[in-house]
Each structure stands twice: as C-alpha cells, then as structure tokens.
Amino acid sequence: MTWDLLAHRTHRWQQWELGDLMSAKEVSGITVSLVVPARNEAATVGDVVGRLRQRLMDTVALVDEVVVIDSDSDDDTFAVAEGAGAVVYRAKDIRPELGTFPGKGEAMWKSLFVTKGDVLVFIDADLLDWDTHFVPGLLGPLLTDRDVQLVKGFYERPFLDGDFATAYEGGRVTELVARPLIALHFPELAGLVQPLAGEWAVRRDHFASLPVPTGYAVELAALIDTLRLVGVDAIAQVDLGRRAHRHQSLRDLGAMATQVIAAAWARSSGDVRDTVELRQYSSGAGGIVPLVREVPLGERPPARSV
Fold first, then answer.
1. What is the Cα–Cα distance from 49 to 52, expressed in whole angstroms?
2. Staple 107 to which of 69, 121, 147, 240, CB 3.0 to 4.6 Å?
3. Residue 132 CB: number of other CB atoms within 10 A?
4. How far apart are CA 144 and CA 165, in angstroms?
5. How far is CA 120 from CA 33, 76, 226, in A?
6. What is the C-alpha separation between 35 and 62, in angstroms, rounded?
7. What CA–CA distances, in Å, run from 14 to 11, 48, 55, 135, 182?
8. To the nearest whole percent, how much of the chain has pLDDT over 90?
9. If you ran DSSP here, which 8-state letter would residue 29 be given?
10. Would you tell me how many other CB atoms lie within 10 Å of the CB of residue 182?
C-alpha cells in the first residue's frame, strides 16, 4: 500500500535525455543551483565539484552555479573547492547577524541566502563511487512535472571494508533508525528507498518555507514537512544506480541517529529541544569509561521568515 503511494513518482535516471532536460529548462525558464555542503572533505570535494562543473555547467548549461558551503572545516576544503571552480562560502560568514551553528542542515539553510536558482540540487562532498548523471536524474521530475516539489535520490549503497564491498549494507542510520520511525509514525513515506539520501533536489520556494534542523536530520525533516504541507504526491524519487562514500564511526552515527530521532519526535509531539546529552562508552586505562557529548538539536525557522 505505502509503495503504491510513491510508485507513480518513482523513476530511473535513464528516463531523461540530457538534451530533453535542457529543452525543458529553457522552456520553463527555471534556473538551477548545485549546492555542496562540506566539512573537512578536502580529499573528495575537488573531484565532486570539478566533474560536475565541467560536465553540467561548462559543457552544457544545465546548472547555472556551483556553490560549496564550508561548514567550519579545519582542512583545505575551502581552497580545494574554490580551485575546482566552485563559489565557496563559509557558513559562519553568511548572514552573520543570524548567528551560526555546526551542522549540515545549517549549511544547507544558509545556502538559501547566497544562491540564485529556482531549484536547489544538493550533492554530498564525500562521494567515492558516483557519476555526474546524479544531477540530471534529480532534475528530471522537477523540470517536467510542476506538481513535484522535492526529489530524493536512491541507489545501491555498499558497505566498504578495505578492498571489499558488501552490496546494500551501507546506510546504517537509515535501516536502524529512519526506516523504523517512518513505519511507526509516517507510513505514507515508507515507499522511499533512501529517506536520508544526501543527493536530493527541491524547489527554492518550497525549501524556504520549511523549518530546517541544523544537523543531520535535515533530509528526514524536509520529507515529513513536505508530506504535511503539500502531500505525498509532491515527492518523487529517482534511482541513481550506485553510490559509495566514506563511512562514519559508530559513535558519530549515534549522534546522527539522535538528531534524526529528535526531528521526528519534534514533528510528532511539538517538543523541539536545543541539545541533548548523549552518553556513550569506551574502554580506558581504568576499564569502561563514559564519553559524554552534547548533541545539538536546534532548528532554523523557514528562511522566508527571516
């Protein structure tokens, strides 16, 4: 039943020829901003930016600008991204009067103040196994169907362990946290294959109408809020093939999972918190020792209200 809710808006990236998308873009007058939120991704962001700019901006004009939002990196992410051809901003320097918070969602929210496109396409900076068809695939539904407001990518996500890759074993927070939350509280979204996918696209006006968690819960929150504001028919998803990226440590995934749970809980109960104390454990000189971190849970208001 839930799969059927999204079946008619589930696509494969091969459905759209690049020339057809260019024609649809020209007829509609829609402009496109490619946004890459990044934190300490100097090893990969140059390849992501360089390939996408060369293929989709310099060779053809499917993308009108490539913008990297650097979220407090302490490596060479800024310089590498700029050298690859992106316009780069530090998140803390965008609308400084609004303050700044750490997190991916903060970078994406801040991107609304420095980009110009009618459509925003978000691509993660840590991609290892991918191709430039991700962007045309995500744009397909938005350029050809005026009713679609948000498009999620999905793909095979292998778990990389040295030289070995296990198919469909990536996405641990998705499988252990997001999917159970959706099954319990938001079953209309159960047809989404990758609800936490970092590759997605959205109409600017719609994204600017949504509250945005400052951390890693931005993707799930956007889906829930879109469902409630305009209905499941405004959401589409596109099979992009295969994607791999650097894996987070288990403890870091715990903090990400906490943010995802908090965003879902806030939308179910109205209880929005600023932080929570997450207690984890590790081995130390004297045995098992606690590791305590403050996990930020705050949300930005809709950008159109600021």
1. 5
2. 69
3. 18
4. 36
5. 5, 25, 15
6. 14
7. 8, 21, 17, 12, 28
8. 82
9. T
10. 22
Residues with Cβ within 8 Å of residue 101, at least 6 apart in sequence: 214, 296, 298, 300
Where do the domains of the chain lie, and which CATH numbers do they carry? 2-305 (3.90.550.10)
**pLDDT digit string, tens, across residues 239-290:** 999 876 566 788 889 999 999 999 999 999 988 899 999 999 988 877 899 8
Alpha helical stretches, state H, the chain: 2-7, 18-28, 45-53, 77-83, 104-111, 134-144, 172-173, 179-185, 204-207, 218-230, 250-269
Q: State both tokens at 210.
A: 């949504």
Q: Give the angle subtended at the CA of 103 by the CAs of 57 and 214, to the nearest 5°.
A: 100
Check residue 165 and give its pLDDT. 47
Mapping DSSP to helix (H, G, I), strand (E, B) and coil, where does residue 258 land?
helix
Q: Flag whether pLDDT at 1 surpasses 50.
A: no
**Mean pLDDT for the chain overall:** 92
Position 163 scores a pLDDT of: 54
**Tokens 């996500």 belong to residue:** 157
Whether the pLDDT of residue 230 is over 80: the answer is: yes
Amino acid (1-letter code) at residue 27: V
